[in-house]
Amino acid sequence: MEPEDARERLVAEQQRVEGLIGELRSELGVAENEDISELSDYDQHPADTGTETFEREKDLSILEQLENELAELEAALARVDDGTYGVDEVTGEPIDPARLDALPTARTNVDTEESAR
């Protein structure tokens, strides 16, 4: 994959993920640097509290996954800038273009990843 094609694809995905993070933060009422605390205590049925707590924890888990994905996209963009995008970080061999097509943030080839396990 050509560096400019990779950059274009990574930037588009980065914008998509940033949009999802913004929407989820807005729904949760959480600022980027705000710590997340327990739900406020107000008079309601314990089952309602349990459901709300479950839903909030699920949304926070999704938010964490999106933030991790964003970090990987930013790291991939840094590799494009450094000229190391598409190079296996362990072996130094080129990453299979089909793998980069399927997972643009890939840092290693599949066989390198499997041998590390």
Q: What does this entry show, briefly?
A:
It is built from four helices and no strands. It has 117 residues and is mainly α.
Spatial separation of the terminal alpha carbons:
27 Å
The average pLDDT is 86
Number of helices: 4
Shape: elongated
What does the largest sheet look like? none
Q: From the alpha-carbon coordinates, what is the Rg to the nearest angstrom?
A: 19 Å
Helix fraction bin: 55-70%
User: How many strand units?
Assistant: 0
The computed structural class is: mainly alpha
**H/E element string?**
HHHH
Strand content: under 5%
Uncertain runs: 34-38
Structure in words:
The chain is built from four helices and no strands. Helix 1 runs antiparallel to helix 2. The protein has helices at 3-28, 46-82, 97-102, 110-115. It is an all-alpha fold.
Characteristic key phrases:
elongated, 117 residues, mainly alpha, single chain, 4 helices
Strand-helix topology:
Layout: H1 3-28, H2 46-82, H3 97-102, H4 110-115
Helix pairs in contact: 1-2
